[in-house]
Structure formats: structure tokens, C-alpha cells
Amino acid sequence: MAKFHFRLATLLRLGESVRDERRAHLAEAYRADELLEAHEAALAKELAALRAAGRTAVMPGTVDLDQLVDAQRYELSVRSQQKHFARQRQAVAGEIERRREALLAANREVRVLEKLRDRQAQRHQAAEARRDIRQLDEVAASRCCREEGE
């Protein structure tokens, strides 16, 4: 029985490597998003702590105006950083979507080649089975003729 050989095996391997590469790129984008999210969370905690410190600073008693002004400036700086990270996350979300679509396209291409390989393998097996049956029929017919001749 002849072994099945898929002529587009190299193309299939290339498609699989492209798919794997795109999957890795998507994972990198997800990691970048997680990192930005962690920075945003840290800034939110810092802002909450700053507000709590600001509430204690304005309690009755002596008020240090320089400290309040510095705290307000720092709060503005933290809010600016939050906006910056939010814009970056938005850009990363767009990149994630683009990379996800690229991965889906690569998956589709690989699936098409895999289906083609499977169909060709089935056809090959069916052809081999027919060839084996034909050979068995010929052997049986030649035996039958030999037995009738004897």
C-alpha cells in the first residue's frame, strides 16, 4: 500500500507557524494590557490614599497650605497619568482586536488546508482499498481458472 503524501504539507506547516506566531503576538498584546491595567489599579489606590490623607489634612486644627497645594498638584499629576494609561489601554485594545482578527484568519487558512489534507487522505485510502480489492479479485479469478483447468 502506497503511503499518502500531502503535496501542500509545506504550506500547511508554514500556515501553522504563522498561526503560532500570531498567537504569540496576541498574547504579548494581552500582557501589555494587563500591565497597563495593573498600573491603572496602582494609580487608583494611590489616588484613594491621597484623598484619605487630604481629608485628614483639612480636619480642624492647624492646616498646612503648602502640603494641601502639593497634594492637589500631585493629584492632578496622578489623574493625568490615569488618562495617559487609559489612552494607552484603548490603543492596546485596538491592537488586540487587530491581532485577534489576524489570528482568526490564520486559523481559517490552516483549517482549510487541514480539511483538504483530510479529504485527500480519505480519497487515497479509498483508492488503495479499491486497488487491494481489485488485486484480490484477480487472484481469486486466476485461482478459479486454474482450479477449473485442473
List the helices and strands and how they pair.
Blueprint lengths: L8 H49 L7 H85 L1
Explain the overall architecture.
Helices cover 89% and strands 0% of the residues. The protein has 150 residues and is mainly α. The longest helix has 85 residues, at 65-149. The radius of gyration is 35 Å and the shape is rod-shaped. The model has no long low-confidence stretch (mean pLDDT 90).
What profile does the largest beta sheet have?
none
Shape call = rod-shaped
Q: Give me the Rg, rounded.
A: 35 Å
Overall tally of structural domains: 1
Using the coordinates above, name the CATH class: Mainly Alpha
Low-confidence stretches: none
Distance between the termini: 33 Å
What percentage of the residues does DSSP assign to strands (E)? under 5%
Q: What's the β-strand tally?
A: 0
- Round the mean pLDDT to the nearest integer and report it: 90
By secondary-structure content and strand pairing, the structural class works out as mainly alpha
Approximate helicity band: over 70%
SSE topology string: HH
What is the CATH T-level topology?
A: Helix Hairpins
Going by CATH, the architecture would be: Orthogonal Bundle
Q: Report the total helices.
A: 2
Essential attributes:
single chain; about 150 residues; mainly alpha; Helix Hairpins; about 0% strand
Short description:
With 150 residues, this protein is mainly α. The chain is 89% helix and 0% strand.
